[in-house]
Structure formats: structure tokens, C-alpha cells
LLM class flavin-dependent oxidoreductase
Amino acid sequence: MSRNRQLHIAAFVWAGATSQSWRHPSIRSDCGFDIDYYIRYGQVAEEGLIDALFLADGATFPAGPDEVVQRLSSVSLFEPATLMTAIAAHTSHVGLIYTASSSDNEPSALARQVASLDHISKGRAGWNLVTSYGPGSHHLGLPPDERATRYDRAEEFYEVVTGLWDSFEDDAFIYDKERGIYFDTKKLHRLNHSGKYYTTPGPLKVARPIQGYPVIAQAGASEAGRNLGARTADVIFCNNLSIEDAKAFYKDIKARARSFGRDPDDVKILTGCGVVWGETDEIANARLDEISALFPVEVAVANLQLGLDKHDPDQPFPRDLPPAAFSLGHQNAITAFAIRNNLTIRQTALRLAAANKHRSIAGTARSIADNFQEWLEADACDGIVLMSPYLIEGLSDFVRHVVPELQRRGIYRQAYEGRTLRENLGLKRPENRHVHRQEAAR
């Protein structure tokens, strides 16, 4: 591994899910619906030179029995494009990645939203393409997304969105006051897409994004999800609960990217990790235990999203669950973790609760940095999606204590490399497909 390889970090914006952090005495219970809180979250991330905020989202109301749903702060959340636009106005470097499912959205509207955020933020937008964060397709009058068709729809969704982003060439707008010509019509291209799932004539009513394409993230870990990510994504957000699993995933995605004709370095793999800092390892572990204890077992089990609510939580974790509707990748990772550690359902759920099904580490700046450096140097990841069970307090701890240790080791930036999210991630700016074709035909 190159000695100057740098760790990339995205800060997970804790939008709720089944989080019980709102119950902690040091955390405001209503912070998840306070715009000033989110703005400050972005500013703290920027102080720590973090690449991007990462916001998970789904269009559907949380499902489950009343005794679970009544405990969830995720029943009332800001719409993500609106939220990220507000954060953009109060930050200048941190990227802004939000989730929008191909099951919950129409591609023309989504393309315009993300392109607009890219212009408003001056090149810091990102879109996390998921196939389904819940059964949201009924919002658009679509048939339920069966597993076999989800990724077909997502592939076409991606093609429509990126095609619309190429509606205008980069230099289409000439603003010629003397002649009264605002843009050059020869540099406008209509998509005229007619496919299996979408019919979209175009063009998009917004100039080409500053980044060419806003950064595209993907989080699928099934066979189809891995192929989609390796072909289309700039960033893959994954869940690996052991370094061995992470190394295998990393190697597999990089190989798939190469098979699609891509440079493997153009696909950044960021693995989710809950982090709790303390002045000593003992203090840090006690803090993690403290917030994990806020999860009732029924909420922690629901968080796994594996249909385990009818099982005895004190039985060994089952090896033969039917395929999960939510995510096969998460199911495989959780099952392997539970079996490897000989855990019951209760133990599995409570261990994974605080970091939303991802691994957690608690320790000093040195031990946390040791862990991150080990994963980076082992080719287990290109970086971390940082999850903070203590929300902004935990993010502030990370920025104040862990970031300087990572910088001291030479594996984390001293300053942002550029102005756009692509520049900070070391990613190329995509060429407009119409310009590329014209140049290839010459």
C-alpha cells in the first residue's frame, strides 16, 4: 500500500432509524427535528475536515407494533434535499450525500433536486442510490418492487438521471447581453429515453451540475447490488463486522469495477463504524454500554430488520432465516457475526443496536486510530462512515481527539484538497456523454 494513502471519512447524520440516543440525559430529545442542530453538525464535520455528511432516508413511515414505533424519533424527519440545502448555506467544504430510493422517487424530479443542490453548494452534492429503503413504490403508483426487478429498475433509473444531468454541455450558457442570447441551443441535448420502466424526453431544466455528476453512492451488498455499485458508484457504503469480511468485500468490489472497465481507485469503499471516544478504554466502553442500555430488546431486534420479532430472543441466532426484504447484504453480515461469536438473538441485537447494525469501537484516540489504520492498510476499506451514538457530542469528541491522531500518523488530510466533493475524494469529473461522442466521431 502506498504510504501516502489517505483515510476518507463520511459522518453519518443520525436521522433516527431505531436510535434511542434521544433518551440519553446529555442529548436533547428533539434534536432530530431541529435545523440548527443539523447545521451545527455539518459545521463540526467541516472543522474535522470530514469528506461528507451521509444521510440515510426512506419515504415510508416506520413499520412495526406500537410498542416499538412509539419509541422512534424517526417518525418525524426533514425531507433530505431540503435539509441538505439548508446545511449547504452554512458550510463551505463538507460534502452533502443523501439517500433517495429508485422505489420512492421519479428520476426527472430526483435529477433536478440533486443537480440543484450541487449548484447551491458549489459542487458538494452526492446521491445515495438505493433500490428500496422500504416498500415505497406505492407512492408513485408502481407495482411492488420485487427483488428480481429492483436492480433492473435502479440501473435504468441511474441511466435516466445521469442522462438528464448531461442535458446541457458545460459551456452552454453564454449570457451574451449584446446579442440577447442566454444559451447556445447547439449545446442542449434531449434525452428522449424510452425504456422498460421510464419514459423521459428531457431536457432537464437546470444547468449541468458543477461536478459533472454529483457523487453517486450505493449501499447494496447482494450479488445484484455489488454489480450495480461496481458499475455506477463513486462511493460504496458497506457493513462489514469483521476485518476478514471487509477485505473480501473490498477485493470483490475492486475486481468487479475493473471488469466493468473502471479504474478500481475510482470506487471508494467506506465501511460503517460506530465510534465512542473516551480518555481511557474503560471510560469509552462504559459510555458505549450506557447508550446501548437505552435500547429495549424489542427495539434492538426490530433494528435488525430480519423478521425476528416472533422468535425467542434468548435462543441461538438462527442460521436459516428466509431472505430479508430489506437487505440481503445486512442479513448475511449479521448472521455471520452472530454465528461466529455464538450469540443469541438478544445478544446480537443489543451489540449492534448503537451503530444501526454496524460494528462499534470504543476507545482512546490512539486505539481508535490504530483500528482505522489497520483496516486501511489491510485493504479492508478506503475509509469510514462514522456513526456517533452520542450524536454531535460524539462527533465533536472525534474531531477534537481522534482527527489530530490520524493526522499525526499521516493518514488523514491537514486541509481540504479542493472545493468540490469529487476533488476531496480524489475522483475524476465525468465528461458529458454528448461531447464524448462528438469527439470520438471526429
Observations:
- The first strand starts at residue 8 and ends at 12.
- The mean pLDDT is 92.
- Residues 296-353 form one domain.
